[in-house]
Design brief:
This protein is mainly α. The protein contains 20 helices and no strands. It starts with a helix and ends in an 18-residue tail after the last helix.
Length: about 500
């Protein structure tokens, strides 16, 4: 078994699988992909986590925390861009791991990503509910506590969180064109709101609020970077749309890199203005730091506009992350590692409807019945581990298939992937111990499912059983220095 769990799949095999059931509609270009990336990235990080990180970890050096997190994501993004152009398949890091490292590591990445997206979507849905309830209260409408809180918090169900997930599921099921159209409108609104904040706030920056600049020391800045890393989660969701892109070899790298650059500039600008407007310790009392800062300097209408922008921002994050999780679940199911029932494309909508419904059910239950602190802790660590494995896969595949056609090449290999691994490893180390323990438990559960179901039902296992023993030896990884399997884009 040891030999077979590290068997790889060729790029050609993955490309053939994308044509099953007629395939999905290829309608996205560079602009649509960039907007998807911005839609996934700009949300919770800019409207919520900026205050948390500034008050408790980074102080005014929040700008440095964002830069450190951006460096980690930037190195990982270049690795993603190389794979996305080379393997334009919906599974994102899961697919890349299958090509370069083999089935076992592909499963680990896929299992990580399911954790990231499921808990990420649930966290954002709970945050969306909080902003929505706040807007209703400002309008004089108060919902019963039983319908806006989880049982752990004294309620029955967080109904607004569940209802927004219903709407997101319907949009994603109807098709990627509809999802992209809705996302583009929402992104335009929230970018306008961020622009309003910067225009209003920059004239109220007081340099005295930046002193002391690093009150919690370097360790605080690094811990802050590990916390606000959540703010950058989403650029990888661009690669999950690979099977719905018109020119994936060109547009996927552009979408990944452009969305990350734009969001990094926005984050640095917002964090600098935010900590200059209000003393960083003041953010300990608020979960809406951007609106709080505008209220503090007298722009009450601006604070109201930011609340609307926050709702839009969180909605687009929900839309893109739900989209991404359904595509990863779809590809893993199509490969047989999860029940093939979910690896089906709807003949009318050309979307993985069954996977989308399962994503809705799992996230709605989590968001509706669990408190935000429980569901929020697990998102970052799964993403960081996936980034590490993808970065390592770039180095390995350059060795195993140096002549493979690459429409986009990550620069300075192996140094850039190595920096990605180092940065992500440091951020994992800085996360709370309880988060690390829970992640180990999640991985253990994943191993039980893989060896109990996934390995036995994998397409590669089925193929091995149905072919002659001589042919069977073509699938596993061969000894070092030899070619593994034919990897071709043709």
């Amino acid at each position: 078994m040891k030999k077979h769990i590290f068997r790889t799949k060729s790029i050609n095999e993955f490309m053939l699988e994308t044509k099953q059931d007629g395939g999905m509609n290829r309608v996205l270009g560079t602009f649509g992909l960039t907007m998807l990336g911005i839609g996934a990235i700009v949300g919770t990080g800019i409207f919520v986590l900026t205050g948390v990180a500034a008050a408790n970890f980074s102080g005014p050096a929040l700008v440095i925390s964002f830069i450190i997190a951006a460096l980690a994501c930037g190195c990982a993004a270049l690795c993603y861009a190389e794979f996305a152009a080379m393997v334009p398949v919906a599974g994102s890091a899961y697919t890349y791991g299958y090509v370069a490292l083999g089935e076992f590591w592909a499963w680990i990445i896929g299992w990580d990503l399911l954790l990231e997206y499921a808990f990420g979507v649930s966290t954002v849905a709970i945050g969306w509910s909080g902003y929505f309830n706040n807007i209703l209260m400002n309008l004089g409408i108060t919902l019963p506590h039983a319908l806006i809180a989880a049982p752990y918090d004294g309620g029955i169900v967080n109904l607004p969180a569940v209802l927004i997930l219903v709407a997101i599921a319907v949009i994603n099921i109807r098709g990627v064109s509809q999802s992209a159209w809705v996302n583009n409108i929402i992104v335009a609104i929230k970018l306008a709101v961020v622009g309003i904040f910067l225009a209003l706030g920059v004239s109220h920056v007081d340099a005295a609020n930046w002193v002391p600049f690093m009150p919690y020391g370097l360790s605080g800045v690094l811990t802050g970077a590990s916390i606000i890393f959540f703010a950058y989660i989403g650029f990888d969701a661009v690669s999950t749309a690979a099977e719905e892109v018109k020119h994936p070899q060109r547009d996927l790298p552009r979408g990944i890199i452009l969305s990350l650059i734009i969001c990094t500039i926005l984050y640095i600008a917002v964090s600098a203005v935010l900590t200059g407007m209000v003393p960083y310790l003041a953010f300990k009392t608020t979960a809406a730091p951007v609106a709080f800062a505008l209220q503090a300097v007298g722009y009450h209408w601006g604070a109201a506009a930011v609340s609307v922008g926050a709702i839009c921002g969180l909605t687009s994050v929900l839309l893109v992350m739900s989209f991404g999780q359904s595509r990863i679940l779809f590809v893993m199911s199509r490969d047989g590692l999860l029940p093939k029932f979910f690896g089906h494309v709807h003949p009318k909508y050309k979307t993985p409807v069954r996977s989308s419904v399962l994503v809705f059910l799992s996230t709605a239950i989590t968001a509706g019945f669990l408190p935000i602190n429980i569901v929020a802790e697990m998102t970052n660590i799964g993403t960081l581990c996936a980034f590490i494995i993808v970065s390592a896969a770039v180095i390995i595949l350059r060795k195993k298939a140096p002549n493979q056609s690459r429409a986009f090449k990550c620069p300075l290999v192996p140094y850039v992937p190595a920096l990605s691994i180092i940065f992500c490893g440091i951020l994992i180390y800085m996360l709370p111990l309880v988060t690390q323990i829970r992640f180990v438990v999640w991985l253990a559960l994943g191993l039980v499912i893989y060896f109990g179901y996934g390995y036995k039902h994998s397409l590669l296992t089925t193929l091995r059983r149905s072919t002659a023993p001589a042919a069977e030896e073509t699938a596993p990884v061969l000894p070092e220095g030899e070619e593994t399997r034919t990897i071709s884009m043709h």
